[in-house]
Write a structure and sequence with these properties.
Layout (H helix, E strand, L loop, with lengths): L14 H32 L8 H17 L15 H22 L10 H31 L2 E5 L3 H13 L4 E6 L14 E5 L3 H4 L6 E4 L7 H12 L4 E3 H9 L9 H6 L10 H20 L1 H14 L5 E7 L5 E7 L23 H8 L8 H5 L4 E3 L6 H10 L12 E3 L1 H5 L6 H16 L3 H16 L5
Parallel strand pairs: 1-2, 1-4, 2-3, 4-5, 8-9
Antiparallel strand pairs: 6-7
């Protein structure tokens, strides 16, 4: 086996690994900068006013602009970043923003800014905003792709987890390069699908380490010899980044696959503070009760209209209840608006499917916008659920999922929620594979619980509801 020798230079960490987390902030700051620059020019030229005199307009326009940007996924990149530079999406988003802002400014009856509603100014704003957004995102995407092209990662050990990771990594970062070292002569053909490079066995590590790697990812420390560990330590002292596959996976994909966990990881890994209870759970419970009562009071008229629509659409009750698994495996009844025909499960329990014939006409729409979940605020008030947490599963499904998915029961170490990290990050699932994927997001939530994560889930839930991503 030939291994290319490269001078022993300090190892550098790829910018892509960290930049992808700060990419939304970078684009957000760029949007703010561009907006203030061109708004200043436009208002000065057309209205002959300075920033002080059109502050009321900004109070309406800017918050709505950035909220709509976030809802439209203009700060989120996926795969080849195509969604960041979509002309159609950006144009439609700006049409919604400017027409809405103009409408509310008109209703506000502020005399100082009535001239801002002139059609030519609004159209000019739209064209400049769209052009700026496209140019900014094109520049950012080009820069990130350049960083990705220069990244080269070495993975020590080949197993199913490493192969799965490599395939997901290349889909997210198609211009990054992965190379593998294994502890045997066997070279798994599945690696060809991810266009990864095979460099040999662990005994070749002293030669391979001289290459300029962005970082080293270790699949399983237990399989490494003392000599290999010493070599990794040497690379670490030279400035190299040594990552455990689980940590790298978690940071890059915001989830923790249960297949990468073992008892040692759970015993000694940092995080999981929510399991300790104390102040965190007390504050969470107080917030749940206050927000649930507020939602129940404010949404009661809307829920009344939904109830009428359900009653007129099909025979049966307005509400229905199901037994679900809750905290520590204790079962309880969850309440929902009825979205299926009466006796839909008379032939047995099964997961809901896309275009499910059991779902009523009204049921389709209330499931699409997650309206059917609203009665569960009563479960929250009763203390059986939280507003945010892993979704409670039916006991009939739990029995099978516990047998085939490692550490599945961990999701019931916290109260189930109406919404959760898995619900906003993964589409509706109706299979064991989907359940395993959702568990990986639930584990991430349990490990990294914080108020910031709770707020992030809440905002993403609004996005899911407004865009009709439910089922």
């Amino acid at each position: 086996m030939n291994v290319t020798y490269v001078a022993n230079t300090p190892l550098r960490e790829s910018h892509f690994f960290h930049v992808h987390r700060f990419l939304p902030l970078m684009i957000f700051v760029g949007d703010i900068l561009g907006i203030f620059i061109y708004l200043g020019v436009i208002f000065y030229l057309h209205v002959e006013q300075n920033f002080q005199s059109f502050t009321p307009f900004l109070c309406y326009f800017l918050p709505w602009l950035f909220i709509t940007f976030y809802i439209a996924d203009l700060y989120i990149f996926k795969n080849n970043f195509d969604n960041l530079i979509s002309l159609k999406k950006i144009t439609i988003t700006y049409l919604v923003i400017i027409s809405s802002a103009a409408f509310f400014i008109f209703l506000s009856n502020i005399d100082d800014i009535n001239s801002l509603l002139e059609r030519q100014i609004i159209l000019l704003n739209l064209s400049l905003l769209t052009t700026w957004a496209l140019i900014l995102r094109w520049i950012v995407v080009k820069w990130v792709r350049l960083q990705a092209q220069n990244s080269r990662w070495l993975i020590l050990g080949i197993d199913e987890n490493a192969i799965e990771f490599s395939q997901k990594f290349t889909r997210l970062n198609p211009y990054g390069k992965l190379a593998f070292i294994t502890d045997s002569e066997k070279n798994d053909s599945n690696l060809l699908k991810s266009q990864s490079e095979y460099l040999g066995e662990l005994k070749d590590l002293p030669l391979v380490e001289r290459q300029n790697w962005s970082g080293i990812i270790v699949t399983n420390y237990a399989s490494l010899s003392q000599l290999s560990l010493e070599q990794l330590l040497k690379m670490r002292l030279q400035g190299g980044r040594i990552h455990q596959l689980l940590d790298f996976y978690e940071n890059l994909f915001d989830k923790i696959p249960s297949s990468l966990l073992d008892n040692n990881e759970l015993l000694f890994r940092q995080g999981f503070e929510i399991l300790a209870g104390g102040v965190n759970l007390t504050v969470k419970r107080i917030a749940d009760v206050i927000l649930s009562i507020f939602l129940l009071l404010t949404l009661s008229p809307f829920m009344f209209l939904v109830a009428i629509a359900i009653k007129l659409d099909s025979q049966g009750g307005i509400f229905y209840s199901q037994v679900r698994t809750g905290l520590h495996g204790k079962t309880f009844k969850v309440y929902k608006f009825r979205s299926m025909y009466q006796d839909a499960e008379k032939q047995g329990v099964k997961w809901a499917e896309e275009r499910d014939s059991r779902i009523t006409n009204v049921g389709h729409w209330i499931r699409l916008f997650r309206i059917d979940e609203l009665p569960q605020v009563w479960n929250v008030i009763r203390g059986e659920m939280s507003l945010i947490g892993p979704r409670p599963e039916r006991p009939e499904f739990d029995l099978k999922l516990k047998q085939v998915i490692p550490y599945y029961e961990l999701r019931y170490s916290v109260k189930p929620g109406i919404t959760g990290w898995a619900q906003v990050m993964y589409p509706y699932g109706a299979s064991i594979k989907d359940a395993a994927e959702k568990l990986s997001y639930d584990l991430y939530y349990i490990k990294n619980y914080s108020w910031w994560l709770e707020i992030k889930i809440f905002v993403k839930t609004i996005q899911v509801i407004l865009l009709g991503k439910g089922r």
